[in-house]
Amino acid sequence: MSKLSTKHLLGIKNITVDDINLILSTAQNFKEVINRPIKKVPSLRDVTIANIFFENSTRTKLSFELAEKRLSADVINFSASQSSVKKGETLVDTVKNILAMKVDMVVMRHPNPGACVYLADRVDCSIVNAGDGAHEHPTQALLDAFSLHEKLGSLKDKKILIVGDILHSRVALSNIFCLQKLGAEVAVCGPSTLIPKHIEELNVKVFLNLKKALQWCDVVNVLRIQLERQDIQYFPTIREYTMQYGLSRELLKSIDREDMIIMHPGPINRGVEITSDLADGNSAIILNQVENGVAIRMAILYLLAGSMKSNT
Fold first, then answer.
1. Which domains does the chain have, with CATH numbers?
2. Is pLDDT at 1 greater than 60 in this prediction?
3. Strand, helix or coil for residue 56
4. DSSP letter at 9?
5. Nearest to 144 by CA among 300, 20, 267, 265
């Protein structure tokens, strides 16, 4: 198989295991490219990509933009805060106006779950979901899987723990879908108020005790507490959350798991969900995740451009 089964990347739920493996193997080739002295290839020289972000983003937006430029694509950046959306223009009209300028692909982040699916049904171009509300963040899940594959090889039967604000996290849901498709076992851990109801129906283990969860897993992926998405208070204080669910060297030492692989999608609230010495330590692969994000996004854009051409 040399091309994706879809012309969009709307979520991990919508793609096949073959798609995931193709993206990971293509990303490996692009990782070699971005570590060369000349980091650019002409693969998308004739493609124009619009980055449309309706929510603030630093790492994801920079990573996509760098990936696009490494592939020699033409790039336009759109910020909703300075656009006609503020004047009442609809999402579809906004994107159709951008596409009228002969744009081939749209990378979109939106606060509403399902916004990318809604758009994909109404416009004639490839859509890449860069995060839609608390729904999915497929490129983050793929770069996490790629980073783990580098460390562990096959993910079959590996035990991956996701800790923190599962309820508001698009990273958690995409990771669950992606890791399970690659054969891993997945568990979540956090306060009961931040664990979605019925998550066990996704074949996910639930821990409320962090120490027990850490004794179960091979890898821990630590999530940020998303205070900006919380309309009510889900736990008494940040300090109490840190005492119960914060990752520290002392905690790992107490269960003899100091060498455990530690991940974090960023941004990190140091001293809240994880201590600085762990985040910067040898077991953390957080900066590897950032580097791999560019390679994964290059692979996705390259493969979608190929699917787009084969469908024309």
1. 12-137+290-310 (3.40.50.1370), 138-286 (3.40.50.1370)
2. no
3. coil
4. B
5. 265
Greater confidence (286 vs 98) lies with 286
Report the Cα 177 to chain-centroid distance in Å: 12
pTM: 0.94
Number of residues that make up the chain: 312
CA 295 to chain CA centroid, Å, is 13
Taking the CB of residue 311, how many other CB atoms lie within 10 A of it? 9
Tokens of 86: 């503020």
Residue 107 three-state SS: strand
Q: What is the Cα–Cα distance from 266 to 164, expressed in whole angstroms? A: 13
Supply 247's token pair. Answer: 């990752």
List, in sequence order, every beta strand (DSSP E) within 133-231: 159-163, 185-189, 205-207, 219-222
One-letter amino acid of 58: T
The answer for residues whose C-beta is within 8 angstroms of residue 99's C-beta and 6 or more apart is 106, 123, 124, 125
Give whole-number Cα distances, 194 to 59, 262, 271, 306, in Å.
25, 21, 19, 40
**What's the start-to-end Cα distance of the chain, in Å?**
19
pLDDT recorded at residue 231: 59
